[in-house]
Amino acid sequence: MPKTLRIYLILAILTSQHAIGGRPPAVGGQTLAPQHAIGGRPSAVGGQTPAPQHAIGGRPSAVGGQIPDVPVKKLQIKAHFPMPDIAVPDFSKAKRFAITDFGAVAGNKEKISAAIAQAIDAASKAGGGTVVIPAGEWLTGKVHLKSNVNLHLEKGAVLLFSEKPEDYLPAVHSTWEGIECYNYSPLIYAYQCKNVAITGEGEVRAKMEVWKEWFARPRPHMESIKRLYNLAQAYTPVQERQMVNDTAHLRPQFIQFNRCENVLLDGITITNSPFWTIHPYLCENVVIRKLKVYAHGHNNDGVDPEMSRNVLIEDCVFDQGDDAIAIKSGRNPEGWRLKTPAKNIVIRSLTVKNGHQLVAIGSELSGGIENVDISHCEVVDGAKLNHLLFIKTNERMGGYVKNIYASNLTAGKIDLGVLGIETDVLYQWRTLVPTKIRKLTPISGIHLSDISAKDVQFESRILGQKELPVKNVSMKNITTGKVQEKKEIHENVLNFQH
C-alpha cells in the first residue's frame, strides 16, 4: 500500500470516532447507536437523538443568541396527489464571498481548495452567504458545503475536480448503491445542512483519468461490495463499514446532499462523474432545475433521489450513460432499518438526449417509493433509451411501489418499450451473495397516459411474481410506431387497463 494512502487510511479511522458519524458516548453501560443509524430524519422525541441545531433551526452565535437562517420561499406544486409546498432557500440578498478574496490563485489546487473552504466557513458563520467562483478554471479537491451557503458559479467559471482519490479523504459517511458506509468523499458534499444551494451559469467538471480505471469490477472490488453487503445484513454500525482501501475502488458520487433540508440546484452545467451524478439522500425539500448534465461513465445516472421527499426536478437536459432519473430508497436491510420512503417527487419538462431510462424506480427500494409524477418530458429522436418508465425489484428487496403517474411524454425509437416492470432484477448480487431474507415488493397504482413514441419492441412488459402479482396498471392514449415483438408481455398482472 502506498505510504500516502496508508496515512489517509489512518486519518479516516481516527476521525470516524468523532466526526459526523462517530459513536456517541456510552450511557448506562450501553453504547448508543448514532442518530443516523436508526432512522432517517431525527426527532426530538421518541427516543431518537436530535439532529445538530443547524439541521433543524438557527445556529447558536458566539454571544449566546441565534444566527438567523437565510429566508426561504415556498413553491406550490401541482401533482396527481396532494403535494406539500417545497421550501427553497433565497440567497438574493445574501452577502457574497469571492474565493479570490480568500487567496485562490488559478492553477494552484491547494490554495483554491483552501480558499473555497474558508469562504464557505465565513459565509455560514455570517448567517448565510453566496460563495462566488469567478470566471476561469479552478482546480480543486473536495468541496464540503455548510448550512445557509450558496456555491455560485459565474458565467465562464469551471470548477474542475481533481482525479486523485487522496484528495477526497478522510472518508465520510456516504453510501454505495443503497448501503451506507464510510467512503471517499463525494466531490461536492453536504451533510446535515439546511438551506444549501449550487447555482449559476458556470460548470462543475470531474477529471476522470483515475475514476475511469475504477469502472472495471474485478474480483477484489466484488469481494469488497460483498463484504459491505454482509456488514449491512448484520446491522453492523455504519462507522465500522470503512470502505477505503487499495482494492475496493468504490467511486464517490459527484454531488451528494446527505440528510439535508431545503436544497437548491439551479442553472449549472455538470460534466462527467465518477459515479451517480446528483444524489439527494434522506433529504427534504429539494429543487433541481435548469441544469445541463453530461456524464457517460459507468453508473452515471443523472439524479438519484434516495429516501428523499418533496422533490422537484424540472427544465433540465440530461445526456447520460445510465438512467436520467433513478428513484431509490435503500437496499435490503438498509432500507428496512432507515424506514424512509422516497415520496412526493415531481419530474417535469425534461429533455433527455441519452439514458437507459427516462425514469427508473429501483432497484434499491426497500424503504418504499410512492407519489411520483412525471410529465411533459421529451426523449430526443436518436437517443439511446430502453424504457420511458422502468420499475425494477427482486425477491430480496421488500419495500413497495405505489401511486406512480407518467403523462404527456414523447420519444423517438425506444430500444425496449414504454413501460417495463420486472421483479427479478438482481444484477451482480444474484451470484455474489445468497438470498438470506426473502421479501417481495408490492407494486400497484401505475398510471401512464398521453404518450407517443416511434418504434418499440413492446408497449408494456410486466413480469410480476405469482405469489404477489402487480396490480392496478393503466395505459391510456399510448401511441407508438411499429411494435417489433408484442404489444403487451405480461405475467402475473391483475387489473390491467389499456
TrEMBL record:
Matching SUPFAM superfamilies: Pectin lyase-like (SSF51126)
Keywords, ordered alphabetically: Glycosidase, Hydrolase, Lyase
GO terms under biological process: carbohydrate metabolic process
Region (Disordered): 43-63
Gene Ontology MF term list: lyase activity; polygalacturonase activity
The keyword Transport belongs to this UniProt entry's keyword annotation: no
Name of one Pfam family that matches: Glyco_hydro_28
Superkingdom of this protein's organism: Bacteria
InterPro entries assigned to the protein according to its UniProt record, in alphabetical order: GH28_Enzymes (IPR051801), Glyco_hydro_28 (IPR000743), Pectin_lyas_fold (IPR012334), Pectin_lyase_fold/virulence (IPR011050)
Similarity comment: Belongs to the glycosyl hydrolase 28 family.
Name by which UniProt lists this protein: Pectate lyase superfamily protein
